[in-house]
Amino acid sequence: MEFSLLGPIAVTTGSAELSLGPAKRRSVLALLLLQPNTTVPLEQLIDSLWEDEPPEHARTVVQGHVSRLRATLAEGGAEAYGIELTTHGSAYLLRLPEELIDAHRFGELVALARPEAAPGDAVPLLREALGLWHGPALTGTVTSPPFAAAAHALEERRLTAVEALGRAHGALGEHEQAAAILYSAAVNNPLREGLIAGLMRALFRTGRQSDALEWFHRTRRLLNEELGVDPGERLRGAYEEILRAEAAGGGRAKPAGGARTAGAAPAGAAGAPGGSRSAADRGPRPVAGADRGPVPDGTGTVDVPGAVPGGDGARTGATEGTRAGSGRAGAAPRLLPRAPARFLGREQELAALTAVLTDGGTGESPLAVVAGPAGVGKTACAVQWAHLRADAFPDGQLFADLRGFGEGDEAAPAEILRDFLLALGTPPERVPGSAQAASALFRSLVAERRLLVVLDNARSSAQVRPLLPGGPHCATVVTSRSRLDGLVATDCARPVGLQTLGHEEGAALLGAMLGPERVAEDPAAARELVDLCDGLPLALRAAAAQLTARPRWRLARLAAALRDERRRLALLSAEDTGIAAALRMSVARLSADDAQLLSALATSADGHLNASLAAALAGYDPERTQDGLDRLAEMHLVDEEATDVYTISTLTQLFARDERGESGEGGKHGTGDGSKE
């Protein structure tokens, strides 16, 4: 006879499963199994079975369930297994060998496993332990707080075992297996920092550095949005270890104990992070005896570039080996996200970026600002160009999400500079604490390098300036929903505007997402979808996601659904992304006056208006209205087509109307100060 708590509550004898009856009876058995060979008071059973006030006859109900359980166990031959359910006054005792309970066997197997000391033995032990699970713990019990707490405690033990199994595989050099095991658990537990840290290390050790860093940034955003906290020591430690190891080892740290990394592509192999050349091609290796630092799994060492033993601390390469191209120990950081999927078109914009960022005639560090409305594809365009032109920047590519338009706080320059300096090989203890000092060190380190810096999602020029490199061989791409006129004025930034897609480009994007045959079935519906999505790539991708989830739908059916303006924004969303979420982040940065002006503009019949009409709709004086329109145009929430001719897109209108309806007249007020740069 065996008892199951790690999944549905069950009792099996041989190949047969005993019938346990309703949820409350299963819950009584579960509580007794959670405390085997221990008396459980009747009052505890009552409190656990009823979340609200128990009925007057609760004692009788519990006694009845215990009586039926005793009979069921007896029918299954409990006595032969040494199992007995007895009454002790106003308490009950389930006496049995504890090894008959799956949760007990699970705990024993996990306790025997030593993932670091004996990983070869730990792997089969932990796999056997995790194989005892058949679903969420305590399935089939009542949904009261005591059972929820008990189920949570068991789930914590399971996740701890998953993390231990990942470490055991990592210690054996089986990093692909470690990543596969940790991935599914991380997807279901996105705020568990220890689990994410283990997955990041495993991904890095398989050569998937961009995926590892993407997990960090995703988790950091979730922690900020859900809990209002920053990453803890374990998650931050894993991130910094990866940055240091990447700077030292070319995107791939050495496996612990000299084991070969399973499934990891050699540095510089096709498809491996870090481009097409190996670290050895870029410059000499560090000399023997150089100081060494930790690798991302917390064991072993990697060479730190530019470190000199016996001096006043490690040198970071600011004084030696900073000449462009070669001569430095270590390898170039490659922090770009993965190239955007199904990227199409934008030939003119990509050509404009090439013209701006590869112009060496000025002797200055070129700077481009990719600006446009929410959802137009600014990040995708910048990252695509960076991947296409990576070979022009052999000393590395740095990337940072400045979080200028997000639910949490924008990224502080000191935070980004720390990440950059670590990626460039600076030991953590030598990273300055102030943004001003860190910025000076950053510019010094990259002064003679051929380096690309991509600063995504900037809110203001002031946020960007400390992050700009100073060398003539460095180039910077900034993306923002704001025009960042301040950078144009003080830093000679060259704007590269992104417009919405036309019918042909929009239909091509749908074809790339859905397959050209599906779009070819109804080209008129495809054109209508482009119009209903305002030509925004984000909205079109969300529409494609809706159609992918509904393979029997024709494009015309979704177009018909999107014609309903009350449903359009909801349909143009996919989980945590969508046009409404993107617009919400833009509006949240507006001042109260500008948010109210936008809400008033949304009532325009056709979305076309001038300053006089806008003033009448908002009830503002002309000067106040003109200033507000200028700021909204700078944020790409309205478009100034010609002098005193403004348009507001349909989707922006729908969003502003929804916000106006939810929050009353005047709409939701933003938190910004509304001032121009």
User: Could you give the distance between the termini?
Assistant: 74 Å
Number of H- or I-type helical stretches:
28
Number of strands: 18
Strand adjacency order, main sheet:
10-11-12-9-13
Indicate the percent of residues in helices: 40-55%
Coarse shape: globular
Largest sheet: 5 strands, parallel
What do you see in this structure?
The protein is of the alpha/beta class and 677 residues long. The protein contains 28 helices and 18 strands. The strands form 6 sheets. It has a 5-stranded parallel beta sheet with strand order 10-11-12-9-13, sandwiched between helices. A 3-stranded antiparallel beta sheet has the order 1-2-3, with no helix packed on it. Helix 6 runs parallel beside helix 8, helix 18 runs parallel beside helix 21 and helix 20 (523-532) runs parallel beside helix 22. Residues 250-330 and 663-677 have low confidence and may be disordered.
Write the layout of secondary structure elements.
Layout: E1 2-4, E2 10-13, E3 16-17, H1 23-34, E4 39-41, H2 42-49, H3 58-75, E5 84-88, E6 91-95, H4 102-112, H5 119-130, H6 145-171, H7 175-188, H8 193-205, H9 209-227, H10 233-249, H11 279-282, E7 292-294, E8 301-303, H12 347-357, E9 367-371, H13 378-388, E10 397-401, H14 413-423, H15 435-446, E11 452-458, H16 461-464, E12 475-480, H17 485-491, E13 494-497, H18 503-514, H19 516-520, H20 523-532, H21 537-549, H22 555-562, H23 565-571, E14 573-574, E15 577-578, H24 579-588, H25 592-601, E16 608-609, H26 611-618, H27 622-634, E17 639-642, E18 645-647, H28 650-663
Parallel strand pairs: 9-12, 9-13, 10-11, 11-12
Antiparallel strand pairs: 1-2, 2-3, 4-6, 5-6, 7-8, 14-15, 16-18, 17-18
